[in-house]
Design a protein that fits this description.
Blueprint lengths: L1 H11 L6 E3 L5 E3 L8 H11 L8 H12 L1 E2 L6 E2 L5 H14 L3 H24 L6 H21 L7 H21 L13 E7 L8 H4 L4 E6 L8 H11 E2 L4 E2 L5 E3 L4 E3 L4 E3 L4 E3 L4 H26 L5 H4 L10 H32 L4 H10 L3 E3 L4 E3 L7 H10 L16
Antiparallel strand pairs: 1-2, 3-4, 5-6, 7-8, 9-10, 11-12, 13-14
Helix pairs in contact: 2-3, 4-5, 4-6, 6-7, 6-12, 7-10, 10-12
Amino acid sequence: MKKRSRHTLDQDDPLCCCEYIDRHGGRSHMAACCCDCEDLDEACDRWMKKKPRSPDSLSQVIATINDRLRVPWISGARQVDISVIPPLILLPVFLHIAALHYLLGILVLTAVPIMVLLYYYFTHRKKGRTLFFLSLALFSLFYMFYLFITEIVPRGDVTHLQLAAVTAGVALTVISLIITKRGPGYVRPRPTDTHSTVTYNKPPPDVDAAYLNRAQHQVVIANHEQTGESGTAQQGVQRRNWCAVCKVVRPPRAGHCRICGVCILRLDHHCVWINSCVGQANHRDFLLTLVFFLLTSLYGISLVLRSVCPDQNVMTALFYCPDVYNQFSSALCFTCAWYGSIVTGGLLHLLLSQLINVGFNVTEREARLARREKTARSLLWGLIIDTGVYSRGFRTNWIEFMTMSMASEPSTHKPSDLV
């Protein structure tokens, strides 16, 4: 009894800046990050004895490393996602290698997009959450801005007004991204529709943390009500819109994201670049973030090309800039301009498809389902998908998009006789 009470007291004591609660629920210290790793010991022991490797041994080692990767904080060490680190290291290395020679530049600038697409395919196939793409996007923005300040501005070719415009563009992009990350609009059960709830102190790993809002995870048990003769049709609609995972009746155009693990109002798609879904509450902010980024990127690329290739036109300097590789600083800026152009081209295609979908009042999720089931009219090699379900004309569609409610209200249907 004494040992148990002492253990409880130790667990209830506040954590110091270097302590944390590990994934097994035990109290650990950052100084022991390289010691006592049973998962790694087991994997090495199997390798030394030439025993077959356990199917989940690698994932357990990675989970242990990710759990122990912490930084000191006031109320206990904070966990750092391991997927944040690779872009911080690999992007500057690749860009500096590409600046050594134009053939290396062609090789690197071709390999980097392919590697990113392969990693996207790998993570999307497993339906896993990762901060790699958000880290790559933010670090690319700040690293390009850093090179602009340290390499282009000292040349004297940029005025104070142009520097202020680029700085304002970067700031507006980040602010708009923060607003977008507040949440896409979650489908939540109403208290009147809930029979009871089961509360768990620890949320499951596949549920979006923004959905919980630092609260305890609750599993809802739907309210069973008796339905009359006219309730058969309504019950059928409810069953089709019922989400067995979130235990809610989804309103029209809402969908369940298997990556975030929650239902989203007017779900458009899950965007890996913001590590969140795009839905009713943040769709406009998402488009505004793309607009700010593209305007800033295009303007910054034009200023860089005018500085490193002053004798060439901006439109031709990206393809023909003689003697740019004679100086490493100019070559690095030219390589970054090419890298920014590749990113800008990809996001420009995303923005264009988003604007077209808004004009036809179609979400990306609805367009994908329509392509699969061949129930929509396709134009311009699939760039335009017109389902004809919600479209009420170009002007009316845009008015509806700009005035759609920001409130994340659940369905008005009651989940009766569903569970």
